[in-house]
Amino acid sequence: MSQVVTSFSAERGLSERHIHILDAAERVFARAGFHAATMNDIAAEAGMSPGNLYRYFSSKDAIIGGISERDRTEVSADFAQLDPGKGGLLDQLEELGRQHMVRKPREKAIIALQIWAEASRTPEMAQICAGFDETVEHGLGAAVAAAVASGELPSNLDQARFLMALFMMADGFFCRRAVDPNFDAAVGAEALFAAMRGLAQTMLLPPAGEPTS
Amino acid sequence: MSQVVTSFSAERGLSERHIHILDAAERVFARAGFHAATMNDIAAEAGMSPGNLYRYFSSKDAIIGGISERDRTEVSADFAQLDPGKGGLLDQLEELGRQHMVRKPREKAIIALQIWAEASRTPEMAQICAGFDETVEHGLGAAVAAAVASGELPSNLDQARFLMALFMMADGFFCRRAVDPNFDAAVGAEALFAAMRGLAQTMLLPPAGEPTS
Question: Least CB-CB distance to B191: which of A164, A175, A179?
Answer without folding.
Answer: A164
